[in-house]
Write a structure and sequence with these properties.
The complex is a heterodimer of chains A (390) and B (166). Chain A has 390 residues and is an alpha/beta fold. Chain A has 13 helices and 12 strands. Chain B contains 5 helices and 6 strands. Classes of the chains: A alpha/beta (390), B alpha+beta (166). Chain A binds chain B through residues 20, 22, 25-26, 29-30, 35, 37, 39-42, 44, 128-130, 178, 244, 296, 300-301, 303-304, 307-308, 350, 352, 371, 373, 377, and chain B through 9, 12-13, 20, 24, 27-30, 159, 161-166. Bound molecules: pyridoxal-5'-phosphate. Residues 41, 102-104, 128, 174, 178, 206, 208, 236, 238, 244, 249 of chain A line the site of pyridoxal-5'-phosphate.
């Protein structure tokens, strides 16, 4: 039978998902040669060697089978100890932690565990591209809240308050943020927590860039008094340990929520990759100095890129974390897409147009500085040349 | 951040790339170009920066012949100056690239580079062994350099990431 007998076999939810703007830029850039890419949302370091080595060892020891659904207990204990060390929050490794296939799967599991059709989830924009689609796929309604560039894209309590309705179940927060690099301070998180409490919401706190803050130490939403019971902390190994390809993340939170997430995980994924879990144990045990070194290098490159962009006349605030800068290109009179596309065609520098991350990202571009200084330097020269032609 | 921390940051950058331009160092470390220049001059003056060198993989240079050897040297220490005097007599030879005082089975480790194996042989038999306090030498020839001074020779540093990712 030919599929043409129906208009489409696809679910309406899937049909209505917008194709990612990131994908479009990837298609454009990958057809060209000698492109310098500032469009990459992942570390330019390879995974620390001791961590890679631990996965070899895992395979040599014959660990080629499934682990417990929630992940190896040894790893969950390490994650628990790590969070206690870093944020003074306690999570029981037995039933408050689940190891997932990247933070991506943790986001998906959390949403699927929480949402009934029609529930609203607040997504703060500019945001990581997956949040809103993940809410839709779980049957919920993403409610987008724009942040103000003049406030360095920090969500303010009144903005949150305005977006809340009867149907609001949760809010997804991300600090340090992708794409803006914005970090919310303890005070700012505490102010948001008051609203969260008042309206009895849950917070999905994506803290995957939590290790990567450059001026102040990172505050987890879970450490704000009263918030641990309302927080599902989502994180992983991709960014801090340069392990994007390993596909390993985790979620922690209230017992019944983690239990529900584990149930879905059990029927859909079974368990995260075993050798990656062994590598993650090594990462948590013995990679502090590698993380510090990568962090130092990111900070230096952040400083470099922000100064360069400002020198060429683009407004750019100094982001406190992650590895992105989000300069304004409004002065050029071009839209983000026009700017990014022209820059790519003329100077072969790939950046991601800010509107891909939501309406409030229009007029901005995301430049990742997770690229060698040499490449960054060349990219800055090319952007400068591009601006001169406008 | 304290001046000392800034100095360390500059040193680490220069250690990785001694040709890194001052204006880039300044931007990365959040200093002015003048401040950066000033700190670098200070550290040169104090011999914290002992020199600027270039790491070359000579095996990639056609027509270049060269041999590297590491020599374990046992010596009798001299009264009053210990190993320092004999070390000096060795490190003054220009073909000697490094000299370390070691704990364990021997006393000095001498790294030497020469054009040919026989030149190294001559250095060991004529110059090194004849020093009065040198008791014995064991010469190891280097067959291949994989990593030197923290730099991996012939490493594949290609960026394996795809062009644009979330
Ligand atoms: C904010 C944010 N959350 C989650 C992820 C996904 O991370 P993972 O590789 O752990 O799935 C990314 C990756 O870009 C991200 O930027």
């Amino acid at each position: 039978m030919s599929p043409s007998s129906k208009t489409s076999y696809l679910s309406r939810t899937v049909e209505q998902l917008q194709p990612s703007g990131i994908r479009r830029f990837f298609d454009l850039a990958s057809k060209m040669e000698n492109v310098i890419s500032l469009g990459v949302g992942e570390p330019d370091f390879v995974t620390p060697w001791n961590v890679i080595e631990a996965s070899f060892h895992s395979l040599e020891q014959g660990y080629t089978a499934y682990t417990a659904n929630a992940g190896m207990i040894e790893l969950r204990m390490r994650i628990s100890a790590y969070l206690k060390r870093k944020y003074q929050v306690e999570y029981d490794p037995e039933d408050q932690i689940i190891v997932t296939v990247g933070a991506s799967q943790a986001i998906d599991l959390a949403l699927r565990a929480l949402i009934d059709p029609g529930d609203e989830v607040i997504v703060v924009e500019p945001s990581f591209v997956s949040y809103a689609p993940a809410v839709s796929l779980a049957g919920g309604i993403p409610v987008k809240v724009d942040t103000d560039p003049a406030q360095d894209f920090k969500l303010e309590p009144y903005q949150l308050e305005q977006a809340i309705t009867e149907r609001t179940k949760a809010i997804i927060l991300c600090s340090p943020n992708n794409p803006t690099g914005t970090v919310l301070s303890k005070e700012e998180l505490t102010a948001l927590a008051a609203v969260v409490e008042k309206h009895d919401l849950l917070v999905l706190s994506d803290e995957i860039y939590g290790e990567l803050t450059y001026d102040d130490s990172h505050t987890s939403f879970s450490e704000i008094p009263g918030m641990q019971e309302r927080t599902i902390l989502l994180s992983g190994f991709s960014k801090a340990f340069a392990m994007t390809g390993w596909r390993l993340g985790y979620a922690t939170g209230p017992k019944e929520i983690i239990k529900a997430m584990t149930k879905i995980h059990q029927y859909t994924i079974m368990s995260a990759p075993t050798m990656a879990q062994h590598a993650a144990i090594e990462a948590l045990d013995h990679s502090e100095s590698s993380v510090q070194e990568m962090k130092k290098s990111y900070r230096q490159r952040r400083n470099f890129v922000v100064k360069e962009l400002r020198e060429m006349g683009l407004d750019c605030y100094l982001p406190g974390g992650a590895f992105y800068v989000f300069p304004s290109i409004q002065k050029t009179g071009l839209t983000s897409e026009e700017f990014a596309e022209e820059l790519l065609q003329q100077q072969k520098v790939a950046v991601v147009p800010g509107n891909v991350f939501g309406r409030s990202g229009e007029g901005y571009i995301r430049c990742s500085y997770a690229t060698s200084l040499k490449q960054l330097d060349e990219a800055m020269k090319r952007i400068r040349a591009f601006l001169k032609t406008l | 951040m304290s001046v000392d921390n800034k100095k360390i940051e500059i040193l680490e950058l220069l250690e990785k790339d001694s040709r890194l331009e001052v204006d880039k160092i300044a931007k990365m470390t959040d200093l002015s170009v003048e401040e950066t220049n000033q700190l670098i001059s200070e550290m040169e003056r104090d011999h914290v920066i002992a020199g600027y060198s270039t790491l070359i993989d000579w095996t990639k240079v056609l027509d270049y012949e060269g041999v590297t050897a590491m020599i374990d040297v046992k010596v009798t220490p001299t009264r009053g100056v210990g190993f320092d005097k004999v070390a000096e007599r060795i490190y003054r030879f220009p073909e000697v690239k490094a000299v370390y005082l070691m704990s364990g089975a021997y006393d000095l480790s001498v790294l030497i580079e020469a054009k040919t194996m026989s030149e190294i042989g001559r250095f060991v038999s004529d110059k090194l062994s004849t020093i009065e306090s040198v008791l014995s030498t064991t010469t190891h020839f280097v067959l291949k350099k994989y990593k030197h001074d923290g730099i991996i020779f012939e490493s594949d540093d290609d960026d394996k990431r795809i062009m644009v990712t979330p």
